[in-house]
Amino acid sequence: MEARxxxxxxxxxxxxxxxxxGMSLAGAEPLRYFVAExxxxxxxxxxxxxxxxxxxxxxxxRGTRIVSDQNLPFLLLNPLTADLILNEKLDREELCGPxxxxxxxxxxxxxxxxxxxxxxxxxxxxxxxxxxxxxxxISLKILESTTPGAAFLLESAQDSDVGTNSLSNYTISxxxxxxINVHDSGEGNIYPELVLNQVLxxxxxxEFSLTLTALDGGSPPRSGTALVRILVLDINxxxxxxxxxxxxxxxxxxxxxxxxxxxxxxxDLDTGSNGEIAYAFSYATEIILKTFQINPTSGSLHxxxxxxxxxxxxxxxxxxxxDGGGLSGKCTVVVEVTDINDNRPELLLSxxxxxxxxxxxxxxxxxxxxxxxxxxxxxKTACSIQDDxxxxxxxxxxxxxxxxxxxxxxxxxxxxxxxTITVTDLGxxxxxxxxxxxxxxxxxxxxxxxxxxxxxxxxVRENNSPALHIxxxxxxxxxxxxxxxxxYSLLPPQDPHLPLSSLVSINADxxxxxxxxxxxxxxxxxxxxxxxxAAEPGYLVTKVVAVDxxxxxNAWLSYxxxxxxxxxxxxxxxxxxxxxxxxxxxxxxxxxxxxxxxxKDNGEPPRSATATLHVLLVDGFSQPYLPLPEAVxxxxxxxxxxxxxxxxxxxxxxxxxxxVAVRLCRRSRAASVGRCSVPEGPFPGHLVDVSHTGTLSxxxxxxxxxxxxxxxxxxxxxxxxxxxxxxxxxGREVEENRPFQNxxxx
Length: 746
What we know:
about 750 residues; Immunoglobulin-like; 7-stranded mixed beta sheet; 47 strands; disordered N terminus; disordered C terminus
């Protein structure tokens, strides 16, 4: 008991060490890898085995995989070489838009033991986009009274590239009246202003057509152009002026399309068309134009598309107010999108182990990760399972959890468990997600067979027929499959004088009990025996008995197995003639076996005799039938003996032979009543034949039934049948009417 406690503590210490190491590595700086956008698919990035200080085989054996929040298969891990390979061509502008740097985080998950490494792939921008003006022609109206140095806001170009490849400068075609000033908006964007160099004269030059060029910082640089058409007007000396230069507003992400975000207002002191103001976006990005629209008359800003806090949190808009005389003013609108609890938690299952062997110590059943796209309390989650289950949840790093067994499982109590993992966020209202897991419990041979009764009492009438079915025993096993298969056999009797093996036998498969011979109430009123689950080699099959009329060492007999159909299956003990099994029977063994047993004395010269045993393996006794073997004629002893006997009294011999023939005929009729049979039909005629080939004075025949099952067999000898009697003995006799002693051994 103390050893098991120590081992359990050691296993917990190893588990805590693995979790601590995994959390330590996960909390360190992430592994960083860089790749230029538009790099071809299949490009080698790094070798993870070298980066992690692990062998390639160890990395593969630990079940390494790549997981990411984006669920984009942009990386591929080669399990044979541990090379990290680019799985697809990346477009930085599609993945990150204007955000710089463009970082694609992912995790390296090692399952055996559990460990996580944070990593990120940074996508470098290349100069693959040229600056583009949304309007290819820009129209301006400038009063001729405009003072030199006045600046006029122009539409800015759009460049999807970032960094040095983004928009960097504007130029205008050479002229004497205008030049370009480039201004930074403070948010990484630049915009052009057209500056007047000298006083205009509408009568001299009523209109200008200039080319505005936008340049990026790439090498070589890319450019885009727009035509600036300038119309010189009469005097309009007041430009529109906004009441606020900056508008800030917060909008919930679930605001309906068409709702008003904010209303801006500007005023113009001029009258007539010079005082009429029209509102419009100034150098707006494509995203802003898709999301918002402004009423040109009222200045109210409306939603054109749904907002998504998880995608964009802040929009910055520049709104221009232009009067009828062409003068304009501008203001800035900052729209902050507020989060609502509109995303249910997600459970991402990484691995699941089923079935789980019963009686196993703490075992990891599942590894999963929780993700909620909301922010703040809306993105915080709690994870739980049912209280009445032998499982617990263990949190790990990066919102990973492991589902482990809390105690050893018992298949006999529950063969499977339906586990519901409930994930709830802390937002208002609270949203939850449920994930069902079915865990099967596999069987371990942890239950011994049990009999349906502790004892059985069987009643048999005396003088019963041999191989009579006298009853059955039954045992069950709570395990399943092969662990629940029960095999029956008999244990050696506690009373060494009880010849149990010659009294009863048992069917190894179904527990049926059979009486092997006719019982005599006056000789045996009751006896006890036990049944084990399996029998061992060495069980007694039968016993060959021979006698020698000599005395002293001339009467010392020894037995040996002279011939056998399958050597190694049976053996004969030299001193007592017991025939025993040398090993367990199997289905590959032949059904019929012929054994020749030799017995010889210790005289000079030694004299011997042989007995032939025919053994048949059957599947069990069910109304057994054994036909009486045909009589084998007695060989003539010697010519001298026959002549001597005939000379003494031929009449007397003839009378004796007639008397014996009558007796044998009667015995044959009586024995036919108790013949032994098996379900498949009669056995061959000579099952056990002990032929007089040596110095024994008689020939004997024996009836044998032997069962060959999975582990045990049933064997039966009836009393020998003497086909003929001689009037005289030659000095060597065999015990007449004594059956071979037998036993059930397999």
